[in-house]
């Protein structure tokens, strides 16, 4: 009798399905909770948890564990966090804004979790454009995608007190700054030599885009 030997890829597929399911449930529940005024405050407190769970899932599926990967991860975190520090304390790069309490513990008036957000966005968009052969073109596409996502996030973030802009206006410098910092991180992503295929990354990216797109309708149509 022919004996079927499980392939080595099966555990990875199982992990992927688990990760996909958690991402869908996490964002669907958060979407409902933030859309209901009576539960909004409670769900806002879970925003850092949502980002941390997303980070754990991405790292759980990631396959390129070599010396280059943590260097990129640290660069994405600290370049993003450092850019926010400059923005908060000088008004350069993004414009005049301050963070609210929604994103959790802060370091020098910047939520620590914001560095995780920069990593997740650069990682997931980097995966999407990983097959573009030219590093500069790929970085331009990745930075453009991150800037477009920030455009979707901004109205929701302001409404939910993630951060607040001076005179309640989102300046164009914000998007210019986002593009420049994102471009730099994507160049590092391209130059770093590690496995860049992660099937969960696209799921997370699409979940985040749908999450904030739908919130733009539910929060501002009420």
TrEMBL record:
<dbReference type="InterPro" id="IPR007354">
    <property type="entry name" value="CruF-like"/>
</dbReference>
<feature type="transmembrane region" description="Helical">
    <location>
        <begin position="136"/>
        <end position="153"/>
    </location>
</feature>
<keyword id="KW-1133">Transmembrane helix</keyword>
<protein>
    <submittedName>
        <fullName>Carotene biosynthesis protein</fullName>
    </submittedName>
</protein>
<feature type="transmembrane region" description="Helical">
    <location>
        <begin position="106"/>
        <end position="129"/>
    </location>
</feature>
<feature type="transmembrane region" description="Helical">
    <location>
        <begin position="16"/>
        <end position="36"/>
    </location>
</feature>
<dbReference type="Pfam" id="PF04240">
    <property type="entry name" value="Caroten_synth"/>
</dbReference>
<feature type="transmembrane region" description="Helical">
    <location>
        <begin position="173"/>
        <end position="189"/>
    </location>
</feature>
<feature type="transmembrane region" description="Helical">
    <location>
        <begin position="42"/>
        <end position="61"/>
    </location>
</feature>
<keyword id="KW-0812">Transmembrane</keyword>
<feature type="transmembrane region" description="Helical">
    <location>
        <begin position="201"/>
        <end position="221"/>
    </location>
</feature>
<feature type="transmembrane region" description="Helical">
    <location>
        <begin position="68"/>
        <end position="94"/>
    </location>
</feature>
<keyword id="KW-0472">Membrane</keyword>
